[in-house]
Write a structure and sequence with these properties.
With 69 residues, the chain is an alpha+beta fold. The protein is globular, with a radius of gyration of 10 Å.
């Protein structure tokens, strides 16, 4: 499992946090460590999860990824 930190634009409240958490949890191979306003930390199975799938999940929640580290 590889740890990754996502910097997310557009999140302003607890509802935003829940929306991002919900979409990330739908991805097989993602374990959510924390989600807070403006960021998320996850552990990913590199055989199953790509950076693109993380970006798409955040976009599905209505936000955009600034960076993934």
């Amino acid at each position: 499992m590889k740890k990754q930190k996502l910097e997310i634009d557009g999140m302003t409240c607890g509802h935003c946090v829940m929306s991002v958490k919900k979409e990330l949890s739908k991805i097989d191979g993602v374990t959510i460590t924390t989600v807070s306003i403006g960021s998320a930390e996850v552990a990913v199975d590199e055989m199953k999860v790509t950076e693109q799938s993380l970006r798409l999940a955040v976009e599905e929640a209505g936000y955009s990824v600034i960076s993934i580290q």
